[in-house]
Amino acid sequence: MLKDKSVLLIIGGGIAAYKSLELIRRLRDLGAEVRCILTAGGSEFITALSVASLSGHPVYADLFSLKDETEMGHIRLSREADLLVVAPATANLMAKMVAGAAEDLATTTLLAADKPVLLCPSMNVEMWKKPSTRRNVLQLLEDGVLLVGPEAGDLACGEVGMGRMAEVDEIVDAVVDQLTPRARILEGHRALVTAGPTHEPIDPVRYLANRSSGKQGYAMAAALSELGAETVLVSGPTMLPPPAGVQRQSVETAQEMLEACLEALPVDVAVCVAAVGDWRVSLDAPQKLKKRGKRPPTLKLVENPDILSRLSEPSNRRPELVVGFAAETENVVPFAAEKRKRKGCDWIVANDVSTAGGAMGGNTNEVHLITETGTESWPRAGKAAIARELAQRIAHYLNHEAV
Ligand code: CTP
Q1: Would 403 be classed as within a structural domain?
Q2: Are residues 262 and 362 in the same domain?
Q3: Whether the CB of 196 sits within 6 Å of ligand 1
Q4: Is residue 366 part of a domain?
Q5: Residue 134 lies in a domain
Q6: What rounded mean pLDDT belongs to the chain?
Q7: Distance 372 CA to ligand 1 centre (A)
Q8: Closest ligand 1 atom to the C-alpha of 336?
Q9: How far is the CA of 160 from the centre of ligand 1 (A)?
């Protein structure tokens, strides 16, 4: 995802600096070249040796180092990067940026930068809440920096509140987001995405559902739309706002979802991300089931229509490309490969939804793309990053280019 991209990571002086070591590794796993500046504060928390070993480059720390300047001056450091990431971004470092200070290598490089800057703030909750910090953050946003985090939670100082640096997954996502070009290569194409859970009524107040949050499907619809596809998102009940430019159709049950999908045809690509309830109650009660003096009711379940299979059936309305998702808790790839054949779709994206996998409801996913020609395993990434990568592959396929 980040092949041929170069990131300059500025590691400030905060306890979250340890997470930056993982960040270096993850960015490199995705193909990026990572060079690092370690501030004096940062070097109180992690060592230059760890940073150099993980990044595979010398660590830059000193503004007036003759050696650094001859090999890679501070201007070149920022010019050669596609993106500058400051993680952790301390209150002090942000204040210096607002003031336009250039008193060490980090601040001088930031001031000299002509590339986007992504800040990952990290500090104590009271520091984050201070009017001065609020003003500085607003000013930096106004100046065009990008921000990821902070998050609320337990802080290293023992207090609880806003101030934790964003998780590495989220930072990686933001980097990928920033560095992925978005040519509108799906303009003129129509896309259909299903997302979220379904609710299968038991009576007017109860239903059968599942843990799907809809995040992966919404990210998929957003990614296809960003590439210019006219996108219909058929969504089960979720708390998510519709992505910009996407036409959302809200449904509750599997049957309603199928109807909405059939209505959206013809499309060039259908991506079924929804966690459709496999069963519904054969006859949902017209009135609320009462427990008074009665035994618990026995629910008779009948099978729901399989939307992915229906869309994959050969017909003149079959989308050129049908993509399914396979939620598995064991034997992920073999089970998903079998599912691809059984359902008749072209590609299937297998993910591990066991608790250890953390995909259901979480922000990241680790997937395997299974096509007719084989299986490709992707590194764990944020759901948005996965959606964007998949949207690119879909675009290549529909444009008859190598996937
Ligand atoms: N799917 C669908 N309609 C259904 C069930 C599933 O469209 N009634 C789609 C999902 O959107 C997903 C794919 O089929 O793209 C696989 O879903 P999954 O839940 O993994 O498979 P199931 O068919 O439910 O099989 P099983 O529960 O046996 O794993």
Answers
A1: no
A2: yes
A3: no
A4: yes
A5: yes
A6: 91
A7: 19
A8: 20
A9: 40
